[in-house]
Write a structure and sequence with these properties.
The structure is a single chain. This protein is mainly alpha-helical. It is 75% helix and 0% strand. It is built from eleven helices and no strands. 46% of the residues are buried.
Length: 276
C-alpha cells in the first residue's frame, strides 16, 4: 500500500506540472511529447535491469491494456477539446469503482465490504468536489464515459500482464502503443513552437510521470486494482484542489472543504484497512 500512496502522490505532482505546461501546449502535443520523453527511459531501465522478453501469455492482456489505454487517452483529449470540464470531468471519479468491479469479475479479486464502501465514499465525494453534475447531452460527455470505462478496465489487464513481464518492459510497451495511437488519431501540430523554452519543466514532468507509472505498476503486483485507482483519484483530486488554491488562487467553498475531509479520512481508512 505504501508504494500505491507513493504513486498517487507522484500522479498528483504530475497533474500540477502538466497544468503548468497546458498554458503553452495542447493536450495532444503533451501526450505525444511525454511518450517520446519517457519511452527511452523505460527501454534503458529494461536493458539495465532485465533484458528478458515476456512469454507468450503476456501478449493478450498487454495488448488489451495497451488498446484500452490508447482509446482512453484519445477520447480524453477529444473531450478536453469539446466540452466544459466542470460538467464532464466528474464522471472520471467512477474509475476506482469500475476497476474494483472489473478486477473481481476478471481476476477473481474481490474487495472486502469495508474497502468497497470506502471506495464508494471516495467516488461520491470526488464527484461532488469536482462539481457534482454530469450530463450526457454535454459535448465531450460520451468521450469521458468511454475514457472512464477504458481506464477502469486497462489497469486490471495491467495487473494480469505483469504476472508475465517486468515493470520496465510493460511500461515501455504501453507507452509505445499510446504514442502510436495518439499520433495517428490526434495528429498534433508542432509548428512554430519553442519547446526548449520550457525544457526544465518537460524534463521534471517526465521524471515524475515515469516514477508514477512504474510505482503504480509495482503497487498492482501487490494489491487490488480498485485500491490503487481509488488512492490515485483521491489524492489527485484533493491535491488539485489544494494546489489550485495555493498557486492559482482558486477559491474553495465550505462544501468542497467538507468533501476534501471526507476523501482524506476515507483514504486513510482504506490505506490502514489494506495494510499500509
Amino acid at each position: 500500500m505504501a508504494i500505491a500512496l507513493f504513486s498517487a502522490l507522484h500522479w498528483a505532482v504530475f497533474d500540477f506540472l502538466r497544468k503548468r505546461l497546458a498554458s503553452y501546449y495542447s493536450a495532444a502535443q503533451m501526450s505525444v511529447i511525454f511518450s517520446l520523453l519517457v519511452l527511452p527511459a523505460y527501454v534503458g531501465y529494461w536493458l539495465v535491469a532485465d533484458k528478458q522478453l515476456p512469454n507468450s501469455d503476456y501478449l493478450t492482456p498487454a495488448i488489451a491494456s495497451g488498446i484500452l489505454a490508447a482509446i482512453g487517452s484519445v477520447n480524453f483529449i477529444q473531450a478536453l477539446a469539446l466540452g466544459r470540464m466542470a460538467v464532464i470531468l466528474p464522471l472520471l471519479s467512477v474509475t476506482p469503482a469500475l476497476a474494483g468491479v472489473f478486477a473481481w469479475l476478471l481476476l477473481g479479486e474481490p474487495l472486502t465490504v469495508l474497502q468497497a464502501c470506502l471506495i464508494a465514499v471516495i467516488v461520491a465525494a470526488s464527484f461532488l468536489l469536482q462539481g457534482g453534475r454530469f450530463s450526457f447531452q454535454e459535448p465531450g460527455a460520451k468521450q469521458v464515459a468511454i475514457t472512464s470505462v477504458c481506464w477502469g478496465l486497462c489497469i486490471v489487464f495491467d495487473k494480469q500482464a505483469l504476472q508475465y513481464s517486468s515493470l520496465s518492459f510493460h511500461a515501455g510497451f504501453l507507452t509505445f502503443m499510446v504514442f502510436v495511437v495518439n499520433f495517428i488519431c490526434l495528429r498534433p501540430q508542432f509548428k512554430r513552437q519553442n519547446f526548449k523554452r520550457h525544457g526544465w519543466l518537460w524534463v521534471l514532468s517526465s521524471l515524475v510521470f515515469a516514477a508514477a507509472v512504474i510505482s503504480q505498476m509495482q503497487a498492482l503486483t501487490e494489491i487490488q486494482p480498485g485500491l490503487v485507482e481509488g488512492l490515485k483519484r483521491a489524492i489527485g483530486i484533493v491535491s488539485a484542489s489544494m494546489l489550485g488554491m495555493w498557486f492559482f488562487k482558486e477559491a474553495i467553498s465550505r462544501r468542497e472543504w467538507l468533501m476534501i475531509m471526507v476523501i482524506l479520512l476515507s483514504s486513510a481508512m482504506l490505506a490502514i484497512n489494506s495494510g499500509a
